[in-house]
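=== Structure Prediction Worksheet ===
Name of assembly: unnamed complex
Input type: mixed (protein and possibly other molecules)
Chain count: three
Listed entries:
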Amino acid sequence: MRGDLRMLAGLALAGFLVLPLVPLLGWSVAQGWRFPALVPDRLSAQAWSFALSPQSGVLASFAITTLIAAATTLLAILIGLPAGRALGLYRFRGRGLVILLLLAPALLPGIAVVFGLHGILLRAGLAGTIPGVILAHLVPVLPYVTLVMAAVFARFDPAFEDQARSLGATPWQTFRAVTLPAILPGLMIAALFAFLVSWSQYLLTLSVGGGRVQTLPLLLFSFASAGRNDITAAIALLYILPGLLVLAVTARRITGRGAALTERLHP
Amino acid sequence: MTDRTRLALLLGPALLVLGGLFLTGLGLTLLRSFRYMPALGLTEPDLAAYTAILTAPGFLTSLALSLWVATVSTLIAAVLALAAALLLRQTFPGRALISFLVQLNLTIPHIVGAIGILYLFSQSGSFARLAHAAGLIVTPAEFPVLTQDPYAIGIILLYVWKELPFITLILLANLQSLGEDHESVARSLGATRWQAFRHVLLPMLMPGLLAASALVFAFAFGAYEVPLILGAHAPKALPVLAWQASTDTDLATRPEAMAMAVVIALIGFALLALYARMLAKGGSGAR
Amino acid sequence: MTTLSLHALRKTYPGAGHAAVHGLDLTAASGSLTALLGPSGCGKTTTMKLIAGLIAPDAGEVRLDTGPITHLPPEQRGVTMVFQNPLLFPHLTIAQNIGFGLRMRGLPPARIADSVAAMLSRVRLDGLGDRRPAALSGGQQQRAALARALVLHPKVLLLDEPLSNLDPGLRDEMRQLIRGLQLETGITTIVVTHDQAEAVALADRIALMLDGHLAQHGPPEDLYRRPASLAVARFFGGVNFLPGRSEGGVFRSALGTLTLPPGMPEGDGILTLRPEALRLGPGPNARMARVDAVTFLGTQTRISLTVEGCALQALTTPDLATALAPGTSLAVSLPPEALWLLPPE
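=== Predicted Assembly ===
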């Protein structure tokens, strides 16, 4: 392909990728935008000011969603880091089965899991509570963190830990001074994307939260079905902010070939 | 501490959580789909729920719709992603920007994209207005129905929009680890560019492409929030149907909802198996 | 300074058909440098890891002067191992690497800095303390890894193949450095290697391991001139082996009767003679030989001979071999003092 043809194709691709965001940007600053106008009737910040005001409930919802995502990520790391180590460094019988058990919750459609999950959490008295939702989010997030950490540990040479022990370091010192620095980049990326997975959960929160836990996607949907395009657009743009932040932080590690955001990320 | 104890301690919590939440949840769903619900006095498992859904036209239509959506969107996304990966393989002006946009896309939740697609393609959306400005239509009703339509065009568009970058990144990672040597060898043996692609590169990319496609298909088949926004009232996508059956006030429909969930899970497991086999064959990414 | 001793050490890896290390008994005297020599798979690295505490034995004991350390975790043994791959921690500078063990002990930063600076000079890495490992050459990394271990003044120092990763030109330098530092510090050191020339050049004593067993343990010269078995002799490049019987001070074999040196045991055995000791020309135990091939090896020339039906080899300096062409007949001598009797196989 010649250079300019490549550039054109690239332009088309770029346009395609950005397209859905364009009307969102437009609607979020619109005060009235009737058919067939190509630009809003009037530009205004009223959608944003309402979204950011206490009456909309957006900020409270933002906080809850952040809390849940952060807690889920933390739990997932505490449980998933050792599990990832086991998978990455050891070859054992049943390893394939364990990986399958880990892949399943992440890959199966949420609807297949949600009924049973709700049932269990209901019995545990956690339905409709934030801890319940956190546990529910753990189901898609934990496998993700574990598999990423398995890949990270597979690239880690445990001989470094042996060497540290031989130089007088206790197991805990070895972890802090040698293992952690080595796995930290991968761990950070896993954590950031785990956060995003929890952040974008809809059905699990709807089901387990029972309507009492109003995360941002649920709120967004209510406004979308109510037909208030301007507010919906503003909330939608707010909703994608953490993703942009994650991207900004990890972009430095990502080469042009995009190797960091690959197979482990569940769409 | 022996290796085995250490292994048990490392893996234990994760297996416990997943076993307790996921496997038990699936098990519960399965039991209920067989109408085994002691709390309601039903202690005789049977297949009534399954026969009910398989004979009711609603379920089969929804299943067909969901399969249609998943198949079409995955096919389109896979083909376009292949082209995109080949495009992005080499440098050209603007490549860095596109890389960034591809990664940006991955961080945008489906629901946001769905709303965007709605505002773009609805009958009073951006494209309709452009058509009006070009003198092609006069009223919104003249613009073709692309969203909340029976062919699920809007839904397919959204899935293609989300899955294209995902598959592209996986293919790029594969391309990077495969290197250019194989094609160079083919070329030096007399193959044209197209032949080198068709007979050397494509077969090598296939396992990764199929693995990614399996993932994408599973998601497109089973997602709930996208059909909610972009789907028509009828036929409903299968996950939506299943959810509505589960929240129906008529308790008798619960087992049917569970049965639908089991069917969805089975299809999901089949795709998982395909994914695992493709991974074993050739890998879905650099490792 | 510390004596290290191993008693009946045994280790079988799970799933392996045979033991990696079989009932090993070995003593390394205080302040000595012992080379643990053997082909790959002979169990020497396993032995090292057992001493270091990185794996646990199935049976047996590891002892220092202070007592058994068999069940102590690696960081409490006072035994420091340097791996074949320098394993410098990539996220730390050279100085931080060298000071690592001291930092783990909780020493004050000022003291650590002093010790590290002194060590940097000792291994001739002055000025490189602030660099990252990736910025150093292979040889420099090896020296840094060595410094990192020495700065701790361990009771026992274990070096796993310290020279194999280096270019031949650097090996000599590194070998002298290791020997020099070891003599200076007097740390009981065990060096693992598969290269017999290296072991011979470096060590006070060589412990040759074959198939998980200790085949022979002694000064290098002993293993060369007085090997304990056919396997040991072969490992050190012995090629002249003559089965036969020793009786009354002579050896009867296919080569007839050969005079033995005093002190040789009676009975069946295998006579061996190092190729460099086989003399070309008349002398005691003389025989007629025919030259089969002459191979120039650089500093030496190898002469393949047939002596009364037996294939023998001699190694000599090139100038002495100039007159010899394949097919030539000449007298060769098997001097009794160079003969050694091996037990029969």
